[in-house]
Amino acid sequence: MCESPPVNENWEDRVAAAWATFDDYPEERAHEFRALIDALVAELPDGSPLGPFEQACAWDSTGHSDKAVPLYREALARGLSEASRYKGRRAKIQLSSSLRNTGEPEEGVKLLTPELDAPSDELDDAVRACLALCLSSTGRDREGLSLVLGALAPHLPRYQRSMANYARLLVDPEE
Predict the structure, then answer these.
(1) If you average pLDDT over residues 35-49, what whole number do you get?
(2) Can you give the pTM of this predicted structure?
(3) Given 3-state DSSP classes, what are the helix, strand and coil percentages for the chain, each rounded to the nearest 5?
(4) Which of 29, 87, 158, 172 has its CA 20 to 30 A from that of 149?
(5) DSSP string computed for 51-94
């Protein structure tokens, strides 16, 4: 369990405001954005899982998956999922994507597969999309396609039942 005190809403608002400016930082100024996040992280109590999570996001978003991976792992090890189920789930999705980008898609599959059975939230489709990419990178394209079609089906104006069945049949063919 995360033992750090809760972060105040003002800090979360300032982090959200910083991320809202992300597109204002072209690639050559990415270090400035990471410095902005680092300054906010410096305000956190020692051991907070939010610090390495925000730093991982900043490195990842500026094209450095290799630097993000250990920070995501640190955030999760410090109890990010207990501090914020939503951010913990985001960290797992983003870590899996970064693992895929750094040549470790099998680890991404192992990390995200349990999320298919996690309580449903707005990140369900992102879990399936990222898991599908990891599966594809391991040569399991049919499983990945099945996940993506299954995630897409409920959003279609028609053919939901057919697409859901097609998705299932890709990995569990009827005899």
Answers:
(1) 96
(2) 0.89
(3) 75, 0, 25
(4) 87
(5) HHHHHHHHHHHTT-HHHHHHHHHHHHHTTHHHH-HHHHHHHHHH
- Residue 138 one-letter amino acid: T
* Cβ neighbours of residue 151 closer than 8 Å, sequence gap 6 or more: 124, 125, 128, 129
Q: How far is CA 15 from the centre of its chain?
A: 17
Tens digits of residue pLDDT in 8-22: 889 999 999 999 999
* pLDDT tens digits for range 110-121: 999 999 999 999
* C-alpha distances in Å from residue 96, one per residue of 71, 72, 102, 119, 169: 13, 10, 10, 19, 26
